[in-house]
Amino acid sequence: MIRSLAIAAFVLATASAGYAQEASTTTPAATDIRVDPSATINVMSKQANMLTGIYATQAVIDICAITVPEPVATKMGNDRKRFETGVGLDATGATEAYEKVKTSVTATTPDCAEGSADRKNVEAVLSLYAGN
User: Fold this and answer.
1) pLDDT tens digits along 49-58
2) Distance separating alpha carbons of residues 9 and 25, to the nearest angstrom
3) Is residue 2 over pLDDT 70?
């Protein structure tokens, strides 16, 4: 029984290879491939995405002069350092990366008014850290 299954698997594998080769000759030529330069491709790791989120939150905190209580500030700082280390940033690289994110956030002119969506987003992050 095992022998007949092995033979059947071999026949299917060789037949599949033949069909795949035949199918590859009918696919469009490489010159028909179009690249969309405006397409976004997320190649950032989860750590890099988390770090960018922490940077963006910190930027709104800095821009809006929001007071972050302890131990929330320490917990956020620890995560920031952990993610910076995880993506291979040294102190200089981390400072430069944060400044770039802060510049981008500043360009969006965050709404610092009490109850605004920007403040609510920061408060949501702070409450997550307060709950940990």
Assistant:
1) 899 999 999 9
2) 25
3) no
